[in-house]
């Protein structure tokens, strides 16, 4: 597989897959590409890998049974075995169960012959109407405030989080105590919005919401812990297709331990509806010896 590695690729390229020839009738194989802009530092962003794997699993399920095309990946449980480089990747997808209400599939993200991300997907039907009850009650504005910090390529955050080159990302300064050299609760808030071309496609918006559920900086930064915080395990939920416009990401932790911390991320769309959620267990950056 040889495909052009664009430096300004929109998010929909992440979901653009090519079927590969295989002799394994039980497994679908697909080729994809993840551009360098979908990285945190030198490595591919975790939420992007989950969303890309979801695209591969969705395609395999639809090909296996076109009657299931209306189902969506409502839950993803991901284990990160390694950190892929940006560039060409492959996906191997196996359908574990097909049912009217629930389907199950496993997807491996592979690079250079190694499985680096393993995700178990649950497929079901998304919510499309209003809710019976909703807990989130946030005072976070629907759009970036004037004092919000944009992830531009020349900003400190933008130099690390390259996603800001292909999506609009703003950090809520009022929750980012570390920016003032202070400490505070382990939390973060940000706004993110896809480029115009990505926003036009509802399915791309849904995948983008899954990606956004891993967009917050590691919340221990507010406690003075900086550096790489590798994710050990992450579970992502997709609740509904987001309305066009800004997504709000609210990240909090229940406990920051000596070696590990948990982080919950809640994604609201421009109407205030919950569109995605995630919970992950990650390692606290260790001091350099």
Automatic annotation (TrEMBL):
SUPFAM superfamilies with a match to the protein in the record: Thioesterase/thiol ester dehydrase-isomerase (SSF54637)
Residues covered by the Acyl-CoA thioesterase-like N-terminal HotDog domain: 35-124
Domain Acyl-CoA thioesterase-like C-terminal: 147-284
Family matches, as InterPro entries: ACOT8-like_C, Acyl-CoA_hotdog, HotDog_dom_sf, Sec_Metab_Biosynth-Assoc, TesB_ACOT8-like_N
PANTHER family: CHROMOSOME 23, WHOLE GENOME SHOTGUN SEQUENCE, THIOESTERASE DOMAIN-CONTAINING PROTEIN
UniProt-recorded name of the protein: Thioesterase family protein
């Amino acid at each position: 597989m040889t495909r052009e590695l664009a430096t300004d690729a929109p998010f929909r390229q992440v979901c653009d897959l090519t079927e590969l020839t295989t002799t394994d009738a039980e497994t679908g194989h697909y080729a994809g590409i993840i551009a360098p802009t979908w990285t945190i530092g030198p490595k591919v962003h975790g939420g992007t890998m989950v969303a890309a794997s979801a695209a591969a699993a969705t395609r395999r399920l639809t090909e296996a049974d076109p009657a299931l095309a209306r189902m969506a990946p409502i839950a993803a449980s991901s284990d990160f075995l390694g950190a892929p480089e940006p560039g060409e990747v492959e996906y191997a997808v196996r359908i574990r169960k097909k049912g009217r209400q629930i389907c199950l599939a496993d997807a491996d993200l592979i690079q250079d012959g190694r499985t680096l991300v393993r995700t178990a997907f649950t497929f079901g039907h998304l919510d499309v109407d209003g809710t019976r009850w909703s807990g989130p009650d946030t005072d976070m504005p629907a759009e970036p405030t004037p004092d919000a910090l944009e992830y531009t390529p020349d900003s400190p955050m933008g130099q690390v989080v390259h996603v800001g080159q292909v999506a609009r990302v703003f950090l809520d300064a009022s929750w980012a105590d570390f920016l003032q050299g202070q400490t505070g609760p382990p939390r973060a808030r940000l706004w993110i919005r896809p480029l115009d071309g990505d926003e036009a496609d509802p399915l791309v918006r849904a995948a983008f919401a899954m990606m956004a559920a891993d967009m917050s900086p590691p919340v221990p930064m507010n406690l003075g812990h900086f550096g790489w915080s590798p994710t050990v395990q992450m579970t992502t939920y997709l609740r509904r297709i987001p309305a066009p416009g800004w997504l709000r990401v609210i990240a909090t932790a229940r406990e920051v331990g000596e070696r590990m911390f948990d982080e919950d991320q809640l994604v609201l769309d421009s109407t205030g509806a919950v569109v995605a959620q995630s919970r992950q267990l990650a390692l606290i950056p260790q001091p350099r010896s």
